[in-house]
Amino acid sequence: MDQFALNAIKARNCRQRPDYKLIKVTQINPSIGAEVEGIDLSQPLTADQFAEINVALNEHHVLCFREQKLSDEDHKRFGRMFGKLHSHPYHAAKAKAIASGDTATAAKITMGGAGDDPEILYIKADETSTNVAGEGWHTDVTCDAEPPMGSMLYITQVPGGGGGATMFLNMELAYETLSPTMKTFLEGLTAIHNGGKPYTGNYGVPVPAGGWPESEHPVVIRHPGSGRKVLFVNYGFTIRIPQLAPHESDALLNMLFQHCATMQELHCRVQWTPNTLTLWDNRCTQHHAVWDYFPAKRFGQRVSILGARPTA
Ligand code: SIN
What we know:
By secondary structure, this protein is of the alpha+beta class.
């Protein structure tokens, strides 16, 4: 690790951690991720419990709640505590295809499992899968003008032979481990995030009428909760930095994607057990579903919470 990264990681890992009265929080590693005990998400939470969960989320960015037996409504109730629920662009694309009588396209929009409830996205893989949702580093739906502030994935079926973890990456730390000169260079830049890159490019979902969402966000944003700066580009959706020539934009984005993907000190790995719900803060993380279990089955569902427009 270089000296810039060492300094940033030491500063973060040596800081004082909060105390909790109502929940037990065990960090997965000092950079990102924690296991939370003492919460039953099938029951409404008290304001004090929710406040402690928020403190832990701000601290660790990824929280795992194990052995939860949740109905769809329980899952959505927990999501609504953070804000209005987000509807994935697949749902709008599917609705448009159905409305225009394009049943062939509507039938194809099942990747990631666009079901009937626009607030739930099914995540499934089996022996017929040719790809799986989230297979590659990304932040959820940054093609939206107001991307989800967080997501909660509830995995009920894990692959029998092991595997199927989700990797997470701390994007505050990704920013902090850059050199001061690079940080200065990134100030004021924006980037274009396009839904067609993953949805049609990777997953082959037909382009809906009117196209996939595309949005421009600052390259460095400020997390609205912590006030800390965050690197906000991701391989999944980010296509271009409009202030640069195309070859410069490609070179810079590739360097930033590599920095995030290869620096393992920024990562944690969530190993799923059946009925685990993992909540992540989409404003300061990326994640990557590891499809290392084909042709075994894995199943779950995701609820995401609408966020605000990211600001520099
Ligand atoms: C996702 O990108 O939300 C899917 C993650 C996973 O299935 O592990």
